[in-house]
Amino acid sequence: MSPPDAQTYWISTKIHSDQFLLYCFEDPADSTAEMRRSLIARAALVPDLRLKVRDVPFHADYPYWVPMDVGADHVVAHEPLGSWPDCLLAVGELLTERLESRESPWRLHLFAVSRGSPRCGDAPAVVAVLQVAHALADGRGASALARALFGGQAVAARRSPGPAPWRPAPALALAAARLPAQLASLLVAAVPAHRTHRELERDTAAGVLPPQPTSLPKGPTNARPDERRSVRMVVRDAADLRGPGVTVTVGAMTAISLALTRYLRAQGSEPPADLAAEVTVAKSGQAHARNHFRNVAVDLHPDLADLRERAEAIAASMASRRVRGEHPAAAAADRALRSVPGPLVRWGVEQFDFGAIPDTVTGNTVVSSVDRGPADLSLGGGPVRFTAGFPALSQFMGLTHGVHGIGDTVTIGVTTSASVLADLDAYEAMLHEAIDEVGAAIGAIGWRGAPSPDTLHSVSEAPAEQ
């Protein structure tokens, strides 16, 4: 396992970090039992779905990915649900579950919904939720796994070679043999990492590089959530959020900034004047790990009343954060991490206090934007109607947004806790209203042009920004 993925795995034992990818399929012809059997058989042909984690004795090295058989417990058919509100409750409860990657780093949940699912009219639907440990895949990889399960294209019938059989004694011996080379490599990598960091500081001081975002005071949405999770899904046409020069991601963030400030005022709270979002952006260059992303803080500019100007300012903030993240210092730090021995990385995770509440934050909410490709997925003969996702909450992040697209449909998935957002239905309605206003302001109505190349960028759960 690569150092970033191992770090992610060890962190997952401390806090919830599983990904939940939701896909809604309209009126499948097959029964739930038939779909379950088909999905189990299909998963057995996907190499990454036949892996699990094994720890090296005494944690003397990074964990290993080892072979795993796909069995009946990997696809769970839940009790049928009568309505869409019932589904929302079930998904909220599901978000509190945590995978044990040493047993399996993924599980697929199926919910049959009788009526009321968005974009399905009066027809029944099946909602599939793919739960994936972050160590196995970042959002880009997880979306690819879902496409392998639900894609119309045939999955290769011949199994690809899996990892070699794993034994603890040889792994422990290899850890001891690798340690001197790792330490030497770390010393070598530390020199350019230090040099490029000094260059980063000089470029920032000279104004060549945008400065590091300042820490922000905590706002109402940075309250600690309780153990319950509540979700809503705002399903819209992608054209409602995209306009000339404005991507779906920027359009969604503009709507979120408008709806959130209105909601907080309606609840008697003063919105932060410097409202910001944490956005997970894919790193450039070759990926040396399954997780290849970083988090950046993006200003949401609630002070700009003109929504077109606000969208442009949000886009500019994203661009400046991207420029800073592309500095050679970031790549040099990543190379240095790849040389750190596993026990040191694990020791660092163990020393960190994940329960501590900081005095300041980098954002007041999370926005993760995903384009999951064309709407050519199906399950049991039923076509996909929309997809959604739910970034995890944390001790100091009580509200997150997932902006997930498939085909011409985009869903803003809202995750929170009743202790943070008491009236989630009101916030959902405000999001719909805000999207209407943003669409009118940016000229989105009837505009379905593809985003230009300069507006494309990868984010944690997506091949490219929408």
TrEMBL record:
Pfam families: WS_DGAT_C. Residues 291-437 form the O-acyltransferase WSD1 C-terminal domain. Residues 200-229 are annotated as: Disordered. InterPro entries: O-acyltransferase_WSD1_C. This is O-acyltransferase WSD1 C-terminal domain-containing protein. It comes from Rhodococcus maanshanensis. The lineage of its organism: Bacteria, Bacillati, Actinomycetota, Actinomycetes, Mycobacteriales.
